Amino acid sequence: MSTLQQIAQANPEWDLETFVEVSNHLLPQFLPNATDPQAHPPETVNPRLVRYYTTQGVVDRPQRQGREARYTYRHLLQLLIVRRLLPEGYSTTAIQPITIKANPDLEALLQGGMQLTVAAANPALAFLQSVQARTAPPAAPPAARSARSMPPPAAPAPQRSTAESLVAPEWGSPVSRWRRVTVLPGLEVQVREDFVPPSTPQELENLLQLIAQMLKPLFQAKRSAP
Asked: pTM above the 0.90 mark?
């Protein structure tokens, strides 16, 4: 269970100071290049900044408990998204239509990349779908499609090395390069050159969860085999 899901189930209400502390604690999980030692450390959130985002309409106005402002899980999602998108060049004007969306859409944006239409019930699946959308190969030009009806010329098979291999897709498409990584004896991972790697620690965690989910049935079948 992710930290966000734990907070959602707890349904907390924070005062402004506590809300700022929680936000700064979680923020590095959702920032691109957060694990890069050469990257500049992210600017911390402070109460003044939270109030500014509220006036800009990218964070909802706080709830009121007497005279005290109270911040909820939804405010946290909105603030994390604002801090996630600002470094990518989005203005608060562009972000405002995003942060008014429902909580599941906001969770999907944080946990699975930029696919706001993906439900966040399964963060690993959301991440997979977002990667597929980002890495979908472009449509072949008409000339290439018409060439597919012609038989391909004979060509020698490419030589494969232990580090990487060349795989020829359907006729008319460019050759793709794969890199093979040995994890353990008998366990290898192949990564195609156009794969977009996770940009945040949260996306990396979702990818690892997805890999574990897909390998689990294989491991179970292997253990139960006579």
From this structure: no
